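G., before I forget:
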Amino acid sequence: MSTAAAIGRTPVGKISASGRKWSELLLGAYLVLFFVYLFAPLLVMSLAAFNTYPQPSITQWQGWTLKWFGALADDQRILAGLVNSVLIGLGVIAAAIPLGLAGALLLTRVEGRYNGILYGVLVSPILTPGIILGISTLVFWRNFGVAGGLLLAGTAQATFIASYSMLMFMARLQRQDRTLEEAALDLGASPWLLFRRVTLPFLMPTIATAAVIGFLQSIENYNTTVFAIGGDWTLVTEIGSRFRFGLTPVINAIGVIFVILTIIGAIAWTILRQRE
Amino acid sequence: MRNLLAIYGRTLTAIICLMVLFWVLAMILVPQIAMLHNSLWWTEKSGDAAAVTLRIDALYNDIGVLELDLAAAGDDEKAKITAEIESKRSEIAELESKEVSARRVYGFANYTRMSALHFGIFVKTMFFSALVTVLALIVCYPIAFAAAQVFTGEKAALLMLGLVVPYAINELLRIYAWLMILDYQGVINSALAWMGLVDFSKGTAIPFLQSPGAVFAAMIYAYILFMVFPIYNTLETLDRNQLDAARDLGAATARIHWRVAIPHAKPGIAVGCIMTFMLSAGSYSVPQIMTRGQGGDWFSQLIYRQFFDANNWNIGAAYAFTLLVACLVFIFLVMRMFGVGIREIAR
């Protein structure tokens, strides 16, 4: 029986060995192609930031320049948009982190019949198209006389960013050692003290991660913001409106800065993950 | 609830519950209901009412002109012009009190009145979003599998880095890159001209941006990575021994994927499909940038126009609700197809 199995296996093993080499080669080629597809367009977009030609282009090359970065530094609307983006981002963190934490505490600590429904409702903003969140916020707050602007854009963003932070908190809370809290209670700690000295320190790393990710999501958001921003603007909605009027390589210069910041951030993130 | 009370006491528990209540009601549910409610009524204006509105607009125009006159007029004329402005103001006040009483009518007309053109745009948007989803799934599965199971250590980390960078770069900029590629004097047409296939001076270059294919191409590029990460997350938890066992038992590569890897990755595939479809169908950024307001509209642009150009919030809300229902139906179908629940979907 064992010899039969050995005889049966050897040729299969041989075929699959050479077959695996081929499939690895094929996979390698596929990956190279995919990454060319991912990065070539970004290269095209970045390169045009250094072209003297006043229209964004890499085919009508008129020489290298850094003038578009200078023009960017003088662009008051874009700078004001950046300030607005940061303001909204900070506000969104301040609202979304407590909401997400409250939702996560309620869902992990309470075994109720309606847990499933509550969970579905609290994650639904992630699965809802961004424009719908912007529109429903706009329509709802009009009843109270609040018009589109920074406040409503932040509110609409916080709705779904809170859901993302809730998922992060839930993942962390499921790994928590509950006996620590019980011990603190037995030793006579008040609920506030317990929350401040036991629960919060345990959640601190997640709060930091959720804050960074939430802030980035807020700054980058376009589809929700554009419906709720009214007459105001953020960095990203200002970029969006430039495609109609006044598209110059200044936008490409912003692109270059975004690409560089993203690469630095992603490398830092990868190194941090490796260390863990 | 007792658990929460026992640990955090009444005050903290109350705060937690109130915050969740506010989030659920004031931010999630009631705004959606408000949108639905808005889509179910419209103001009916009789012919008279329309005339009244026109008359009011005309009066406001007159006042604007008179105020300019007032600034330029001499002292003797000022009193006369001021009196005229006052009389127009009172007429406006009287007319506006009538206008406010325009009738609010409830019904489904905001939905049923959708023109054939708009319905066609809705179908086009749904069709291309589904196509983006299917294509992204086919393209991304091998990538996610390679990142999760084939490569290890440094190589896997580098692969992830290569995926994270384009994923994290702003959506608008990624779409913009494709605008530059497909533009009339963009990269592709310039390459074709260089090869002598098209000629700008004769106008034979290909107007890519006028076809929905341009929006489609940018959509795939913008949202493809939302398919990779959910699948990667589930495949990463697959024990490599299972794959080796299947191979040792003589299963061919295709069979290993079909019977072992893909069933394990089901929740990830479901999430990837839902995210990709939802982002594509609800994308305002891609059609807005790629058409630059000149190519044909997509459904999200129709909604935007109803709100901010036509100023008809009722029809806008109806269109938005239609989009929401379409996405819900898609989510439901995907959950049924892959046999996964909401708990597994959002993790």
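Chain B touches chain A through 94 residues (CB under 8 Å). The mean pLDDT of chain B is 89.

More on Monday.
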